[in-house]
Every structure is written in C-alpha cells, then in structure tokens.
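Task 17 of the worksheet. Students: predict the tertiary structure of the chain below and write it out as structure tokens. Keep your answer in the requested format; marks are given for formatting as well as content.
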Amino acid sequence: MQQTNNLSIRRRLLISLISTIVILWLISAYFVFLAAHHEVEEIYDATLAQESRILATLMLHEIEEDNEAREDLQNLVKELGEDFINDSASFKLFIDEFMADESEKDYLTLVPRDYTTGHRYEAKLAFLIKGVNGRTYLRSNLPTSFNTFTEGYNNQIVDGKLWRMYGLKEPSGQFHVQIGELMSVRQETVSEIVFNSLWPIIVSLPFIGLLIWIVVGGGLKPLQSIADKVKNRDPKSLESISTLGVPREVVPMVTSLNSLFRRVQRVLDNERRFTADAAHELRTPIAALKTLAQAKSLADEKNGHGNFLNQVVRGVDRATHLLEQLLTLARMDSRSLEHSHIDEVDLHGESINILASLGATALEKDIELAYEGEEHPVMVPGYTPGIQILLRNLIDNAIRYTPEKGEVTVLLNEHESDIKLVVTDTGPGIPEEKQQGLYQRFRRGEDANSQGSGLGLSIVKRIVDLHHATIEMANRSDRSGLTVTVSFPRAC
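Model answer:
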C-alpha cells in the first residue's frame, strides 16, 4: 500500500496563517505606497508653489528698490545739471555704470554652494527667475537650463532626467519664476517611507511564526492527548474515551470513536456468547451419542461388527475435543489477568504433569517424550488453568504433527530477564510464510492425517498475550522439525 505524507494540522495552520499575514502585509504595503506617493506629491508640489511665491515676492521687492534708485538718480541728475556732471568725471562714471543696459548679465548672483556644509539634495533642486525682456534675474548654481516656461505644474526632461516643475508668472508681467526638483527625490522619499513602515514587520516575521507555532501547539494539545490515548491503549481495550476537558470541536469525533468501540464490543460479546452457548448446547447430545455408540459397540463386538461404531466413537471424540477448545477459547476471550486469580505457577511441575498425561497419546505413535532443563520449581505469576492449557496444546500439537517413532522435547530454562519454555518436535516443520497465520482461528497445518480443530495455537496465543509473554515459531536448523518458544517475563 502506498504511503502518503500527510501534512500535520500544526504545519498546515502555520503555513496558512503565515501566508495570510504575508499577503495582508503585501496588500498593506501597496496601499501604504499609494498613500505615501499621494501625500509626497501633495506636500512637494505645495512646497514648489510656496517657494516660487517667496522668490517672486523677494524678486519683486528687489526690482522695485532698483527702479526707485534709478528714479532718484535721474532726479538728482536733473537738479545738478549736465554741466556739473560733466565736470565730475568720477560722478559721471558712476551714473553711466548704474544706468547702463545690463540685460546680458544676471541681475543677482546666488551665493556659491558650500560642498562641506551643504546638503546633497541641493543638486536636485533648481530655479530660474527671468524677465520679459529675456534678462535672467536669478538662477540656481546649476548647469541645467530649463527648456520652456509653462505656467503651473508640469514635468520636463532636462539633460536626460525627469524634473517636476512649477511656473509662476508675476502679476504685473515683469518676470516669471520657474522652480523644479528631480522626481528621484520623491521616489526616494516614498521608498524610505514604505521601507521604514515594513521592515519591523519583516524582521518580526520569524518571531511571529514561532509564536504561532507555540500557540497552535498549545491549542492542539487536547487533540494530541486523544491521539496518544488511542495510539498507546491496549489493542484489545474497547473502553470509552473520556470527553472531560476535550474541546467542543473534537467532542463529535470522540463520541463517534466511543460509539464504534461499543459496537465492536457488542459484536465480540455476541460472538463469544454464541461460541460458548453453542458448545454448551452441543456437549450434552454429543456425550449421549458417544455413550450410546460405546454401548452398541460393546454389544456388536461379540458379533464382530464393532468397527463402524468405533469410528463413530472416534468421530465423537473429535467433536468433543472441538467443543472443549471452543469453550476454552470463549473463556480466554472474556478473561484478562486483571480479572483472574493470579497464582504462582510452577512451570517445571506443570510441564512434567502434562507430559505424563499425554504419554498414552504419544505411545500410540511410538513417539518419545522428553523433558530437559531446570530440575527445580520454576515459578511465574499467572493463571494456572491457562498455563496448563498452553502446555497441553503445544505438546499435543507436537505429538499430532510428528510422525511415528519421532521425538517431542520440552526444554525449560531460566534467564536473568525471562523464563523460556521451548517445545521441539521432529515433524515436517512449517514454511516461514505460513507460521504467523497459524495463530488465527480454525487454521491448521498441512498434514491432512492429523486430527484437530485449528483452535489450539489460537488459544495458546491468547494465553500468551494474557500473561504478557511472547511466542516465537521457527523450523529446526539441525534436522526436520519445529521449535516453539514461549518467553515469560519475570513479572507480569
């Protein structure tokens, strides 16, 4: 069956929550970018307009002062007369320079940029004040020249770079102001705003993931507790799982599990009850049939006609053996050591007794029974009738499947951690691929000449499980035959 890698609930929630948070952050970053871009545009555009008005006001004031000075000088010349001015060479030179046409020269010169104390963004700002006569009144210390004047806001590409411009025409029409800044200034500002808004969230993402992992793990503890209870419980236990402290969302699942356990328990109880009842009901008529057959056989033996009835008696014996096994299995299925009287069972003594009781059966096939190992009482805690049934079934099976003149040996050895009971025979053995299947009910070996119900090893396995022991089956390596090893722990 192909295995699938199922994603855990914790991992699935972590991936879902982190993905959702990241998506929400990306959406938030997009809207932060839009809002920052809009606000930066608004603020920077307002700054351009404000700065242009300040420059226009200052420039207008400067021009008015210059016009007033010229007017005062012209009045002075009129009052003094041209003869006086011509007689004073220095005064005439001053008047000629002051009144000269300097339209080809900037009216004012901006203080040079200080690269040590100035700001790097100064190189990204520019302005120009120009009169209607084409004279430049004032401009920034940049090699950049603005192409055309456009009133209001506009974008221009100057020297391969995009500039944001604002043009203001002086109300009296004497000059216009053009001020601009590189668009990269705004882009850098927007990027800084978005980055500074998001980097704390990006840095905290691993910590948020760890926090989610811990919180989700704590929330899943009740579910994990239920899973551990189901996983670690005895495979034969069908007790209901308590819903105390179970989250409301998990209660329906636990209730369904408990309902399933109850249905399985009812099915098993009905099966055991049927087996026990059927065996009890059949025991009496079979016993009566055997008695009649034996009585009739004794009467017919005198006439030489008892062979057929002897076969009937043997068949009845087999049916009786099957019933006994069914009853034993029913008792074992409904029993556990916790509900049984636990004794200190002597494996040595019980082994000797069972071997003695099966001596006649072995003698019919000329099979040699032997015991080896410990010669003193070997005590294990357990259920005495169960141990007796285990020994009888193992030795009886070995006798059944061992051919005539064979050997069956019981070996008992004590070890530091366990006690091993080994039953070996010289039968045909069992293929490895079929050994595990023999523990199932009504499964028999392949020897068709043997008599049995197929329940012996199933009962043995049940008794082994009740005593918390283990059973292993292996073919002999030295010769033909089978070895069955039961290991009892020192303490149940």
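Marker's comment: Residues 447-454 have pLDDT under 50 and may be disordered. The chain has three domains: 9-191, 229-277, 337-489.
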